[in-house]
Amino acid sequence: MNLYEHTIIAKQDVSPGQIKQLIEKYSKIVEKSEGSIVKTENWGLLDLSYIINKNKKGNYIHFKIEGQSKVILELEKSEKIDKNLLKYMTIKVKKFDLETNYFQTNKDKNSDKNKF
Prior knowledge:
The chain is α+β, with helices and mostly antiparallel strands and 116 residues long. The protein has helices spanning 16-32, 69-80, 106-114, and strands spanning 2-11, 36-52, 55-67, 85-93. Helix 1 (16-32) packs antiparallel against helix 2.
């Protein structure tokens, strides 16, 4: 099995309910294509490096996927026609980093330190 990290950027005006629907939609596509999602991360609304279709910000969603290349082909085919998405990107990796949360806020980091 191959390991992939797949990130999608949804438009800035997409509601939290629609983001959940996007996550469910693409999770089902992965499962139908005989793949599995190891981890899903909602990175939230972040600034874009440049304006894309009049959007200055985007909702980032990151998937860690295990499966064959046909899983990614099915995902990208569906994402090309999705009007709520601005961009998507897939990277093949050798192993997943499941420990680090790169987009955790400082407030969250401090609360994690106080737990121990």
